[in-house]
Amino acid sequence: MDKRLLTIQDISCVGQCSLTVALPVISACGIETAVLPSSVLSNHTAFKSWTFNDLTFDMENILNKWKNEGITFSAFYTGYVSEAQIPVIKKIIKETSRKDALVVVDPVMADNGKMYPGFAQDFPKKMKELCSGADVVLPNITEASFLLGIEYRPENYDKDYIENICAGLLKLGAKNAVLTGVSFEKDKLGVAVCDGKSVEYYFTEKLPVQMHGTGDVFASAFTGSVCRGKSLLESAKIAANYVVESIKSTIDDKDHWYGVKFEKAIPYLVKELEK
Taking the model in full, what pTM does it have? Predict the structure, then answer.
């Protein structure tokens, strides 16, 4: 039986993030991708205004139909979800998992030291519950700091700081942690991959821009790569390089501020997966 992945997160109709990234990127990895939208936004929240429609009310109904049809999944990838949805998501994973199903949790809630609009300050406490059952948790440094209740350092940190974060994430109950946005040198940006035995690093060039949606691009390419049988470190390398290629495809278009042109870099991703 071929693998089937379920991704649970919002759909921003415009903005190259969340489900509009996850569905095409993971599908391009050769993995059947099912979706469960947690909410619908007109566009993501970096725009000046947006509409928001919460879909919590329908998640149980969808689960019941899947159970009636015998629909199951070999992998799960969660992104932007609300506090009320976390118990339902845990139920969905429990009741639709195939044997040894992979669970990847991207605890989308914050960046650059601040929570995203719409999240209460105590939301990280609830997100810990979802992280505790994950095979891989994928926070950036801000999100990890909120999850662990520690000081957020935007720069001037060392390996001890990063590796203590990784150890803390595993203490939450996650089997593995991949920490994004790690940088020890001003011209390099990368990830720390922790499996409980060691922490390995991978760095790419740090481009002179910050763009929306790169975390979703990374998480989607990473999850698709793991589902293809790549190791955690190999998957992190592929995903990090894919993000760089996506940014390079976008950087000269000054009007394209709201996301990265990940679509143009999909041939690169597919080629890397075939190696």
Answer: 0.97
